[in-house]
# Entry
Amino acid sequence: MSSLSRELVFLILQFLDEEKFKETVHKLEQESGFFFNMKYFEDEVHNGNWDEVEKYLSGFTKVDDNRYSMKIFFEIRKQKYLEALDKHDRSKAVDILVKDLKVFATFNEELFKEITQLLTLENFRENEQLSKYGDTKLRTLINQSLNWQHQLCKNPRPNPDIKTLFVDHSCGQPNGARAPSPANNPLLGSLPKAGGFPPLGAHGPFQPTPAPVPIPLAGWMSNATTVTHPAVSEGGAIGLGGPSITAALKHPRTPPSNPSVEYPSGDSDHVSKRTRPMGLSTEVNLPVNILPVTFPGHSHGQALNAPDDLPKNVARTLNQGSSPMSMDFHPVQQTVLLVGTNVGDIGLWEVGSRERLVLRNFKVWDLNQCSMPLQAALVKDPGVSVNRVIWSPDGSLFGVAYSRHIVQIYSYHGGDDIRQHLEIDAHVGGVNDLAFSHPNKQLCVITCGDDKTIKVWDAATGTKQYTFEGHEAPVYSVCPHYKENIQFIFSTALDGKIKAWLYDNLGSRVDYDAPGRWCTTMAYSADGTRLFSCGTSKDGESYIVEWNESEGAVKRTYQGFRKRSFGVVQFDTTKNRFLAAGDDFSIKFWDMDNVQLLTTVDADGGLPASPRIRFNKDGTLLAVSANENGIKILGNPDGVRLLRTFENLSYDASRTSEVVTKPAMNPISVAAAAATSAGLADRNASAVAISGMNGDARNLGDVKPRITEESNDKSKIWKLTEINEPSQCRSLRLPENMRVTKISRLIYTNSGNAILALASNAIHLLWKWQRNDRNSISKATASVSPQLWQPTSGILMTNDVTDTSPEEAVPCFALSKNDSYVMSASGGKISLFNMMTFKTMTTFMPPPPAATFLAFHPQDNNIIAIGMDDSTIQIYNVRVDEVKSKLKGHSKRITGLAFSHVLNVLVSSGADAQVCVWNSDGWEKQKSRFLQLPAGRTPSSQSDTRVQFHQDQTHFLVVHETQLAIFETTKLECVKQWVPRDSAAPISHATFSCDSQLVYASFLDATVCVFSAANLRLRCRINPSVYLPANVSSNVQPLVIAAHPQEPNQFALGLSDGAVHVFEPLESDGKWGVPPPVENGSASSVPATQVGNSSSDQAQR
# Structure
């Protein structure tokens, strides 16, 4: 098949995957043999769909291809055979034996005879090899595999240090020399390499994505009988007890930061070493025993050194004054910690500076509004404890659930500014849990209590919307979530029952028993794809389990708890990788993919028997309750660096004042507060997308933990950081292309390892950073020069142009989320290019009118917003080749488009200096506003206005040659503005850093300025002498600026002479300057500043 045909198949696969044609996409994968979807294969294996497993596998390898394919097919058919015997379906078992298993008789006749004899047994478990069918498969497999690795050592030690199954270990020799690799061990001979699987993941553009879990409630509705798959026996050579299929095919998954997901091929050494079939006649017969040791370092997850990623070093010790009962980190300001205590106090801490910002004692805000039972209870016993504190998804609100009837909701405005928002007399008795959610795009508060009910309240008004009744015991916890547009709530009660509710009045959809049958909490992994619960029984038995949502059954049970826990164990999840729980005076960690305990941390001692724990959103910090009213903050290396920034610095209230959305409770802002699914805010928060200036959509899952806005010591005299010499920062001019005149558009790829530019002559340039000794992770950097990349065909990505000069056209482009294709126009038709081959996949929409700006819809890559030079915006569906809507509201060409997936709006800007907000559901115009241009400044007739959303998705940056401005979307109000002096050069372009904490701006005099985004105050200026040689014409200007998608302090400039420069601060500095002091202690009212040529104060650029 030609390479073009393969490209087409991959595009079709991507389309089918995005449109969720699940059966069709897997059918095409199997029939083409181009892409082996390991996630789908594993799911089918775990679900016991053996016929589908074999059918899918047959598209990639056949039984007789090699000994490893033979082993895999043998395992599949053996499982089918044993399940038929287990169900006493003899006729089916005979059929499988004759049709499926007989083929293996020619390779191992004794094995086939042994399998046949199982038919004569009333219960095949009478066979010693199968006595443990259905029992402890995972541990048996791991021990067998580890033991096998160990026996291949030349000098096996009695207590081996084995970290992982994925790399064959070898025990060190006494003198420190390494034993030879088992693959080349002269005693065994050279092991032949396996074949059958083609190298996968290198062909793009189809990037494998985890298959969406089916609607979770579907499998929980009825008591589905789950198939117990046979465990492998502990020994013997007949082959009934060899490693199972999943064990044979397990592979280290590529970390999410790697854009190319590479599964191991059948030719790779580690596959051939791991998948030796036990019992086939061609094998060396080694005795297999169960090692009586556990291997805490082993992880089935990503091939990383897991313990180094865990926050396990004590970085801060705080004293709350009363015993912490519940804690939660702010979802945006990740060093701000909310605490609720056993005497009803709430505290707010900036853990970096160790400063307690707020301490509030419990009091009823309006006793007259309280029910008589509550008033009577408070008179009888005024003691109140906090059961739960939690932030709303965007951090603008937080809720407190008390042990007496009441829930209090505060609004948070940054620093120490918290205000009373709502007080709800929610339940009779204690309120045991509290969560935020947003069904129907409306922020809600969910509570549960001793009165056996769950209630849903409007977060804006406190109006009760639903009451769910059906539990027969006090409700202990709630966990709201959504999947495939289905919004639901899990709840657990003290009788161990788990129920699930939709937002209606039709009762519970689920009735299952939680392990432990007493106090249970539930939580999803951060990406929302995996469900876990943690429970403690009345006898002190504790459990953490992962659930198979489609069946309502326990998928795996994690081991390592104390036999009898002292109190109720709390747990948390982080990074889609780790689980943690407070047990036995310590914190215990697990890899989500491994039931064995990963590691245990005692936090230098002083912990209670069952400490409360809470990760911050990035998983770099972990708050742990300690004895004597203490709180310990544990950090990994990134977390420790984050905290160190605040060492000995007083907390600056401006740090959060402008970043946090203030809860103006209208329909849009309520939706804004619902930035993510909010069962457990940081657990369920999905990665936020940033709509870029060039029409791209960013996924911030890989953005490095960052300091949102460093505070500064006000006792020091602040001075603007001026960079005048090349030695004062790191800068790199990218390799030249002589065919290019000026750079019109510039963007980093989403993976962060390449830069794409569109020149004014309609040619695209792509620079790629390759992995090497100086750049081990192949990310874009100013320290290593990239390659100006072209495919072997030598073709260029060149846009369609009209008869007029392309220099007069308005170029635009937008990059797909997986970097596999780019949509681009330079005055002619819009072109779709394959980023791997540079080939034009299609062209569409010939002018007039010509496209002037492109933006992908954040939820649907098939929908594109196209700004036109006739001032309209066309909403175009690529799949059906149809314009769905045409939006009219501007009077000149469109120069900027940005989507907010939180508010469900599209913001547009034009050369008319007007900004419009459109509803992205029905495409109605909601608001519009003209920019307030500075007096005496007359912009050019073709002056662009650009827009880009802040990370919070509710504020956006407006860039015009006369100003920078931050707008609040729901009211379309300008909350910040920065204006250059009359004599200063116009602004050519600007963009947020990837974490939205900085704004990078370029000027037509070749100056680059770095601003603090929270208040648009200048913190660093880079002068032209840094990157332009003295002999360069003063006519060279920066036209476009782009920010790295994961490195907040890296940006790139595109110049009018066709050059592209990458900038980073010196490693010793780590950042661009320091933020200026805040006038009058607040940044909320910084006036518009003007700029001139002096650097003496903040008012100048």
Remarks:
- The longest helix spans residues 67-86.
- The radius of gyration is 31 Å.
- The chain has a mean pLDDT of 76.
